[in-house]
Amino acid sequence: MPAGPYVFAEWKECRVGLDYHVEIDKHYYSVPHQLLRETVWARITARTIEVFHRGQRVAAHVRSSSNRKHTTVREHMPSSHRRYADWTPERLQRQAGEIGRHTSALVEIILQERTHPEQGFRACVGILRLAKSYGRERLEAACSRALEIGARSYSSVNSILKNNLDRQRPATPADGPAIAHDNIRGPTYFH
Hints:
Elements: E1 10-15, E2 21-24, E3 27-30, E4 39-44, E5 48-53, E6 56-62, E7 70-71, H1 79-85, H2 89-99, H3 101-113, H4 121-134, H5 136-149, H6 154-162
Parallel strand pairs: 3-7
Antiparallel strand pairs: 1-4, 2-3, 4-5, 5-6
Helix pairs in contact: 2-3, 2-4, 3-4, 3-5, 4-5, 4-6, 5-6
């Protein structure tokens, strides 16, 4: 007699995506990042997902019912991704708030504009790191300038600091009268 009860399992051939995950029933499960674009076999039971490559089990996960979500094991990540795994939107907001309200506002906007906040982590971490090179006061002024001109990236804030634009105020548009000229039709032309 077998040691345990029989467990029904399905097998599915999968290709590992560029994000080192395989899709099984509308959910994404991680595998070691070295297997990018490799063909693997998934053993699917009611409770577990096991992934095999060339007959060797390379990953095991508890099955999830969340659609379009990711289950990721930290050890499956490349080292460059692990560095950001401990970052959270709250942590970035807290660090930005320590620099100033404009920096905090810019980080919040960057995180909100992305489909997934994690997509904005690299830009936010880069912006916060600029405080080491330029100082907190200059970074706060640069973030204020970036908010005024609608810039939402690390490269924009870095450019503002490199070109000393944080020390200048943007040109204000003239609020003078509209141009009066015979060739300008005006609002009554089309009525």
